[in-house]
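Repro:
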Amino acid sequence: MPEKLRANLAARMKKANASDLLEIILELYPQAESEAAAAPGAQSRSSKIAAKKEAFSRNVASVEEAVRKVGGEITGLAWINQVVRARVPVQGVQELSKHEKVAALDTPHSLKSDFG
């Protein structure tokens, strides 16, 4: 599913050897909140955060397994952004793009402040 590959990652893949390892970001599809969690005042803020972390943990398990299966390793998780950072062989990127829970694949980039 090449449409899931962002331009930066596609360009990096073209320059890399098949055996090279790439640092990538796998953006997961957002998880739908349960009705109880979405209802205003139904849960405390900390309970909602815990529920989102738990949902991410369940959702990310199959993605982590897929990364290992292609010969890669997980280097970071961010439940708040629903992303996984990984180091994977170039040939594994296409396989990961087929995963049902992966919305997009990109290269890591630095965050820049909007404040001067």
